# Entry
Amino acid sequence: MRKLICWLGALFFSYIAISQKTISQKVDSVLALMTLGEKVGQLNQYSGDWISTGPITPEGDKQDQVRRGQLGSMLNIMGVRHTRLLQEMAMQSRLKIPLLFGQDVIHGFKTTFPIPLAEAASWDLEAIERSARIAAIEASASGIHWTFAPMVDIGRDPRWGRVMEGAGEDPYLGSLIARARVRGFQGKGLGDLESLMACAKHFAAYGAAIGGRDYNMVDMSDRMLWEVYLPPFKAAAEEGVATFMNAFNDLNGIPATGSHYLQRDILKGDWKFKGFVVSDWGSIGEMIPHGYAKDSYQAAEIAIKAGSDMDMESRSYKGHLAQLVKEGKVPVSLVDDAVKRILTKKFELGLFDDPYRFSNAEREKRALNNPAHVKAAREMAAKSIVLLKNEKGYLPLSKETKKIAFIGPLVKEVKQNLGFWSIEMPDDSSYIISQWQGMVNKLGNESRLIYAKGCGIEDTSRAGFAEAIAVAQSADVVIMSVGERRDMSGEAKSRSRLHIPGVQEELIKAIHATGKPLIVMINAGRPLVFEWTAENVPTILYTWWLGSEAGNAIADVLFGDYNPSAKLPMTFPRNEGQIPIFYSHFNTGRPAPDDKSKNYRSAYMDLSIHPKYEFGYGLSYTSFRYDNLLLNKKTMEENETIEVSFTLTNTGRYAGEEVVQLYLRDRVGSVVRPVKELRDFKKVKLEPGKSAVVKFIINKEKLSFYNSKLEWICEPGEFDLMIGASSADIRLRSEFQLE
Ligand code: BGC
# Structure
């Protein structure tokens, strides 16, 4: 039997080797036929033109270029009708090289899933993978080959609006989520009809834009880069991500797009990445205002030498690359390498065999109307909601509640629920479930619901307060839905003040003053600052932007059909003055042990150093006890492991899931180590009264870090082990030694 398995394995691998070889031979044979102009064309990507209800086929010059084989790829073209039309134009070109269609499929396609930061709060890797899978099934059926996702930038500054697109602040959680998303998008692998090429972006360190201002400069140590910002990229590369996108920012003075170090030394060198790198939108040309290139001629030279393979929309390659080669400034081998990388992906996708294989209208219709996708989106949305407070046990609501007031500017909004990077279906929003509709669906009709808007999202007017107060007074319980507009967190949506916009928090105060049981739901794409609400309102749910099933998922959580299990993937500051704030900081030489002992300590005179809500925090309708911590030994050598186990018990009245988190601290190192680092977690489901033994394995990998020479090593010494329900709520502690 074993022999048979070995033989089949060998056969399988030689099959892979042969098919790979065939692709590379095919690529070479196409390359041999190409003129320099056609080669440069492959490195060129344009956006489609848009009309208000969606994309249209690009006009004039762009069409011509497609017909002349001067374009490798387009973005913002969707739908089988449009993509087929363009592909037909590409088939009129001399060599009939098919186009690649890319799109920002960031959190779902038609079926819109929660924004990525919200999904990260689920800590549910299978659900996150499923979400990306469904997005891929729908988008690929709609003619798309390639998504510009996942964004794997670490986000530690909530002023930066793009934190909504990532997985939060932690490199360990971020790396696992990066892998899950790559697996989800790419599915069975390129060539399968339901797979998209994924794209790890923005390489690198875009999340560290100074001041949280989008596109801003980044200045960071090697330690931060390697330990915090690069790991999710490395994980994506290891998971086989097809493409990378570089970044708008400079890193220590070199624009990422022109960085040989990032793209050639690290990515294509150390990490042996075989896919291709696309520039961010116009980022090759942006090296001019950066002050790194004097014109687009020089920008093109820098970018191709640095390893940027495809030029998204800056047109520098189109304008100058051929000339640069002719003048001997750029060796043609660099152009060839970039072209080969792109053609390889086109072959792997099967586009040379059939350029229309993603152009089946029947399949498109089926994929975009699949009830199983809707169900998964509802589940994912419920898993993403974070219960921040339930002090008086108002939640879950009884389905018998007689009168429910539903107040706030977001209650009846429809498209707001989709979040920033959503893809809207033209002329149809009936598939989006508003928060109001979700409540109506749950209760059967509107008879027990009363509504007041109270105020607009950014209003300064309090004119609606009186009506809202009257509505609250006539109800048994009040639910408020407040927050940002969905386009306040996203690209170019940096904010310096993170309060709930307008007079919404004043409205909360006014409703709170009625004395009615109050539940506040906060919708946003980032951690907001809401100190008064956090202190005074007994019940708070953080509902982010949950997608097309938002209303149903929220109602599921409000009435206890889903017991919240999400945990914050990002620290919530008390106010903007604490930013950047993250749990895995160094101790400093003068740690402030608590808010009282601040004098000549690393603290603020006028503010606690502790966050409002810490990384990993989130409540459930039930409660959990952690006990019986056991380590099978207290010392290990590098090649050994320690098994850690403990008992988790559901001590409350509801079935529920707990995300148990394992943190480690290396007490003394050749470089200082963080006060704690997430090194493992598990999401465990338990019926009331039931217990489970949870196990973790400590191995060398979990104890390793980059030393001062940036070597990945572990050092003998003592480690603290902490297991808890959040990064601050540590329930069990022990220690062990690496010998
Ligand atoms: C963003 C990318 C995005 C691209 C294409 C850029 O502005 O930074 O993340 O993929 O546009 O839409």
